[in-house]
Structure formats: C-alpha cells, structure tokens
Write a structure and sequence with these properties.
471 residues, alpha+beta, 2 domains, 8-stranded mixed beta sheet, 16 helices
C-alpha cells in the first residue's frame, strides 16, 4: 500500500480577516494545457510522426514500453513548453497531460509493468538519455543505447516540411544563411576558442527560407563561417528543384559568406546572390565622392545622410571574375561605408533598393535564430559527444517547426501572427487546467480567467478547419 504523506501547508500573510493558505493537494492539474493547440498542429502537419521515422529502433519490441514516436514527442513538446533538460522529465512524467501529448494509451500510467513506474505514464531521464546518446553504429546487440538517428533523413525532413507547407510554388525563394556562436562550458567534442566571440563555442550554420528552417548544422568553431555551406546548399537546392524546377532562388548572407567558392557555385547553378562585402581601402576610395556629399548633407541638416554607388570590382587574388558591387556611403557623425556584392543586374534591382530593401531584410533571420537559441534551447549542447549535441539541435529545430506551424496556421490574422515563440508559449500555451480521466474521455477544465481565452478559441477554430495529415 502506498503511504500517503501529509501535505505541507503554506500560510501566507492574510487578506484582511481571511487567512491565505496553500497546499499541493489540488489533484491532477497541469500548467501547460495550451499545448493542446500544438497537439492539433501535429495532427494537421505530422511533423513529429515524420521525425520519428528518422530513427531506427533496434530494441526488442516485446520489452518496449515507450516507442520512439512517444519519446520524440515527449522531448519536443517539452522544449516547446520551456523544459530544456531531460532531467525535467523526471517530474513531468507525473503529469498525465504530457502523457496525452505523447499519445500514451493510458495517460494515468496505471498499466506500467513495474510497480514503481505506475502513475508515471511517460519516460524518465534515463530512457530519454538513450535516445540522445545512441552511437551511429548501434545495432540489436548493443546493451542499452540502440535508437539510432538518421541525420540525412532529418536534414531532408526540414526541407520537406517547407515544401509540404506550400500548395503552389512561391514566386521566388530567398535563402538566408548565417553562422552564430553556441557557447560551451565543458570539454565537449569539437569545442574550440573563437577569437571573435571571445569564448569556447560551436559555430552552427543556419539556413532559413523566410520563417522556415531548412538547415541547422552544428560545427566546430575552428573553421571559416562559410565552411560547408556549398554542400548544404547543394542538397537543399536539389531537393527544392526536384519539386519546383523553375522557381528562382536567391541567397543572402553577410560578409562571412562572401567567398569565391560559394559565389562561383551560385553562378554555375543559375542562383542569384547578395552577400555583404568587407570594406577595404580600395572600396572606400571608390566611393570617396559620395562620402563627401553625405558629410556635407549631414553638416547642413544634422541628420544621417547616405548615397549609393554602383561599382564593378574584382579582388587582386581570390575572385575569378569581376562582379557588381553596391557601395553605401553613409555619414552619421563619422563615415559608415558598407558594401554588398551581387550577381543581380542593375535592371533587376537598383543600388538603393538592393541594399536597403533587399539585403537589409536579412536581419529578420536574426530573430529566428534568437527564437531557436533563447526560446527553444538550441544552445543546450552540453553532452560530451558532438553527435548527441547535433541531435539536441535537431530536436530544438523541430520544436521550432511545430511552433512556427502554430503561428502560421493557427494564429494567422491575429495580433500574435508575428509573435515570437517565447511570447506564444507564455500567453497561449501556459494555461492552467484540471485533468479528469474517465473511461471514454480525457477532460481538461481550463482556467476560466485566462486572459487569452478568446485567442485560444480563434487558433483552435483555424486549426480544426484544416485537413488532417496523411502519410
């Protein structure tokens, strides 16, 4: 018989003549009931079902209590709801709502084989750890860790989700590339000190098409920012062109990607590009007249002034050809020259539009990377192996895909259509609810005073109007 412990009471300062007393005895209550919307998103998109298919499970089926699909769902939903560590799941496994999210047949956990596990329907940290730490060569003879991820399948799935989201091909695809720092604080495999960031870190590569994440590649930081970009672009563009062979594709990136290899690859594959170009004395001298004009205007008006100039430019050693360069001559108390190099002709886009409207728009990608790292814990790469840290980056990436699908499908036309993942989680997913499980139903009695109840209803109706995903 399970011993029932007496719950500790917490007596706070009174409200006038009324005592204020609390106790952890409310029964089955969850603080994450808004994730019902994420569950509906999964029903309509199949993101987690497709992700689960990217693993090979070598475990003996008769001994398995938690399928790969359940483990993956549990972990990704946890990240979306703000639980960054697998250690958190040792407490979350007591929550029948997480069992509902993971599609456990008995959310109460009463059917578990081991008596100690009854009442805990989902996996604990040790089982989830096997999902993360299985080596690439694991097979049925391995003792514990034998759930092997297929990296190539996960890479392809990120692009597939983008393709699946569009019934018709877009008029143009803009691929934004960027590298960022992922600080590490241990002796992880592949860690190096990066002089620019001033710390030990990884240097992951991200590729986005608008809000859609197409690539999240974990890399050591002792490399050039552009390293491996051509290989990633080759597979992404090939996958896109298999479905949409005639859609124009344009690459955007900062000066860290302005390398002969990637520009020559674009030119050889019919892809346009606009890359930042590091300034030097030759380039600054070439826009000297425009800089002087901008300075004169600033002296007269006191406001920032800028001019643009078209250039044809070729480096002395590294470039194989002369290319179009646009120079921005700006003065705001001091000179602020900036340059971009592009394969696009002036007739397609003039200098000002190319720089201000097109190139500068790549800054929106920074918000997407911040969502991944700050809201969905893409920088939680604290295992000793680079492979398992890459898996953590994948899981964060698919948590982002799930949240982005909620924003795109459920919140379209609302005040939160452009909200970041952290805001969506705080205002829409963190909803208190009492859980009641009967033979035929799982009841969730949501908080009556939730301030975003109306928005929740709009998102629900938007999602319910969509067809279910079919393999």
């Amino acid at each position: 018989m399970i011993t029932e412990c007496i719950q500790e009471r917490f007596e706070f300062h009174p409200l006038n003549r009324r005592d204020v007393v609390s106790c952890f005895d409310g029964g089955e209550i969850t603080s994450d009931a808004g994730a019902l919307l994420l569950r509906e998103v999964e029903h309509k998109t199949g993101i987690l079902r497709q992700l689960s298919a990217c693993f090979t499970d070598h475990r003996r089926a008769e001994r398995v209590e938690h399928s790969v699909a359940e483990l993956v769902s549990q972990r990704v939903y946890g990240l979306a709801l703000g639980y960054e560590d697998i250690n958190d799941h040792d407490r979350l496994r007591h929550d029948p709502f997480f069992a509902l999210l993971a599609s456990k047949s008995d959310p109460s956990g009463a059917d578990r084989r081991c008596a100690d596990d009854r009442g805990k329907a989902i996996a604990g940290k040790s089982t989830l750890n096997r999902l993360e730490l299985s080596p690439s060569d694991a097979d049925p003879s391995a003792r514990y860790k034998k759930i092997v991820m297929n990296e190539a399948a996960m890479d392809a799935l990120l692009v597939d989700l983008y393709l699946q989201a569009h019934a018709e091909p877009p008029e143009q695809i803009i691929l934004d590339l960027d590298a960022t720092d992922d600080p590490v604080h241990g002796n992880q495999e592949g860690r190096f000190f990066h002089g620019y960031y001033g710390q030990y870190c990884y240097l992951p590569l991200y590729i986005f098409a608008g809000e859609f994440l197409l690539c999240a590649r974990l890399r050591p930081s002792n490399i050039d920012a552009c390293a491996g970009s051509v290989e990633e672009l080759t597979r992404i563009v090939s996958q896109i062109r298999t479905k949409w062979p005639h859609v124009p594709i344009v690459l955007r990136a900062d000066s860290g990607f302005c390398r002969e290899t990637i520009m020559a690859w674009c030119e050889g594959n019919g892809i346009d590009y606009v890359f930042g170009l590091a300034k030097n004395t030759r380039l600054i001298k070439a826009i000297g007249k425009e800089l002087q004009e901008a300075k004169s205007e600033w002296e007269q008006t006191g406001r920032a002034a800028r001019r643009f100039r078209e250039l044809t430019y070729r480096t002395q050693k590294t470039w194989s050809r002369t290319r179009r360069v646009v120079g921005k001559a700006e003065y705001l108390g001091k000179i602020n020259p900036r340059f971009v190099v592009t394969s696009m002709e002036q007739a397609q886009m003039d200098a000002r539009v190319l720089y201000e409207d097109f190139y500068c728009a790549r800054g929106e990608m920074e918000n997407r990377i911040k969502e991944q790292q700050l809201d969905l814990f893409a920088d939680r790469t604290s295992t000793s192996r680079m492979r398992s840290n890459q898996l953590r980056l994948y899981l964060s990436s698919f948590a982002y895909c799930l949240m982005q699908a909620l924003r795109r499908l459920g919140l379209a036309g609302t005040e939160m259509a452009k909200a970041q993942c952290g805001t969506i989680r705080l205002k829409l997913l963190k909803v208190g609810a009492q859980i009641r499980i009967t033979v035929r139903k799982v009841w969730l009695h949501l908080s009556a005073g939730h301030p975003c109840a109306e928005l929740f209803g709009i998102a629900y109706r938007n999602l319910k109007s969509l067809p279910a995903y079919r393999c």
